[in-house]
From TrEMBL:
It comes from Symbiodinium pilosum (Dinoflagellate). InterPro entries: Catalase_peroxidase, Haem_peroxidase, Haem_peroxidase_sf, Peroxidases_heam-ligand_BS. This is KatG2 protein. It comes from the Eukaryota. It catalyses: 2 H2O2 = O2 + 2 H2O. The lineage of its organism: Eukaryota, Sar, Alveolata, Dinophyceae, Suessiales. Residues 1-149 form the Plant heme peroxidase family profile domain. GO terms for molecular function: catalase activity; heme binding; metal ion binding. PANTHER family: CATALASE-PEROXIDASE, HYDROPEROXIDASE I, BIFUNCTIONAL CATALASE-PEROXIDASE. One of its GO terms (cellular component) is cytosol. Gene3D superfamilies: 1.10.520.10, Peroxidase, domain 2. GO terms for biological process: cellular response to hydrogen peroxide; hydrogen peroxide catabolic process.
Length: 198
């Protein structure tokens, strides 16, 4: 799709501003450690058709088996920001202000947390791909720019997101998808909603 370095960093930062990773259940020493449950069902299910992870008691029991705190999806665990359900600037701010050290998720995957465990970002995490943004000089420059200029990040993310949702392998150029579909999704409603957010 011809992503530029700027678009790449903006999409990673925006994509990791909202939401979190899920992988609370520790499968070490279980049958799922040798034969990963996510190789079983069509939707990474331990029991095909259950839409859940391990339901055999390994990760919770009853209605909570394989759900909520018993979820194992990515195997990584934690939010990237302090408010993962609200747009914010923690992703870049924390990348620049914290020292990130290797850690393990409850599942056992490699991820990163702050060296200072009393930091305001101590309850957040980073993936290796996130930390690599500050190890690469080209990407580091963009991370520094977005940490210093939130309006620039907002604008660049909006442009990159528009490109992401309006292009595909079959529609590689600007407006190809819109021309083919006959309409374009508009996000103007978000501006009106933001006026009501606290």
């Amino acid at each position: 799709m011809g992503w530029t370095d700027r678009e790449t960093v903006a999409l990673i930062g925006g994509g990791h501003t909202l939401g979190r990773t899920h992988g609370n259940c520790n499968l070490t020493g279980t049958k799922w450690a040798q034969d990963p449950y996510n190789n079983i069902g069509p939707y990474f299910e331990a029991t095909p058709g259950s839409l859940r992870g391990p339901t055999d008691g390994t990760c919770g029991t009853g209605t909570e088996a394989g759900r909520g705190n018993n979820t194992v999806s990515s195997g990584f665990e934690g939010p990237w920001t302090r408010s993962p359900s609200r747009w914010n600037y923690d992703f870049f701010d924390a990348l620049m202000s914290e020292e990130w050290v290797p850690a393990k998720s409850p599942y056992g995957n490699d991820q990163w947390h702050t060296r200072d465990r009393s930091s305001k970002f101590a309850k957040t995490m980073r993936l290796t791909a996130d930390v690599s943004l500050i190890a690469d000089q080209t990407y580091l420059h963009l991370v520094e720019e977005y940490a210093a200029d939130h309006a620039k990040f907002d604008s660049d993310f909006a442009n990159a997101w528009f490109k992401l949702v309006h292009r595909s392998e079959d529609h590689p150029h600007q407006d190809d998808l819109e021309k083919d579909a006959g309409f374009c999704t508009s996000f103007e409603f978000l501006t009106a909603q933001q006026e009501f957010l606290p």
